[in-house]
Amino acid sequence: MSDEEWERFLRESMAGADGAPEEPSARAREVQRRLRNSQERPEGRRTYAPARPRRRTGRYVAGLVVAVALLVVGIFPQQVLGLFGGEDSGQDGAPPPAAESERPREAPGSEPGLRPTLAEPFRGSPAARWADGAAGITVPPAKATGWMDAAQVKRALRQSRDFMADAGLDPRVLRGERPTEAIALLNPHQKDVQRYLRTALSSKAPTPGTDPLLLFSRFRPEQARLAGDVVRTRGRLTYREGRRGALEVTADVTFVYPVTAPGDSGRDAEVVRTIVRREVVMSWDDPDKVITEPGTMSLVSYTLDMTNGGCSGPTGYFVPPFDRADERPTDEARTLDPYDRSKPIDTDDGTTAAGEDCATATRS
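Above: the chain sequence. Below: its structure as tokens.
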């Protein structure tokens, strides 16, 4: 380097060249540090940055609405279901009644005075909201009773309901055929019941004590046929420990049979509801104490109450009163409500299987 170049270099260094970096002041350095700290750090390859929480007001409101709706359904299930109508809601959108787990305190309320039709055979009656077939028979929870453990009690309760269904709902039995499946559940060693079965199912002129209707529902096909294929029921099973440690099951069930004359199939066909209430007490005996067969039970008692089934004397079949179903009771006639299940069956009121002194139903 020449002497001139070296001298110029020294002058520029002391005076400061244009564009040369200057040392920042203390205030500037503090501002820069704050800016750097406020900026987000770059995310590394193996780091996880959780998402920032967002407001979810809409979801919280929707969840609250759902929770309130579930609470309302839990407290008022029948009322809520009734709002949506449908076949299970019965007529006029009314909700179906809860399953019968104990004897009701009063008869069901009155219904609109509507005549039954082939399309709506239960219209105008409480049965419009009842369950179909065996579904209307409430079976209680099983617990060990007498000689049976809980599993055996559960099986006996199921078979007891099967007996009521086989005797009162089997389409073949309703047509007057032999109730084979129901008989198979009866103890073949119970002599009085076996004698009753032989007489009742073979006699052409049964007596009040040998009438097959005491246990089985039957119609003559040439006299009446079901209006549709549905029978409505309502009832329950109860049980307790009986004699000799047996499981004693009581069935109290009301059957509603809508029927019409065989040749009556037009729009104006007359539909009559034959209403039958049965109370059957069954004993599932300890085989070590009573002679019996596995899977069978003995009958303790059986009682019948019926409406629109005939009053002129036992024939072995229900005889619906076509052309007379709208007769109203006179002031002197004894009346009954066939849908009233709040009282036991009265066997002294003339409403059993047969008898000339039948009470008159207040509704059907």
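The mean pLDDT is 81.
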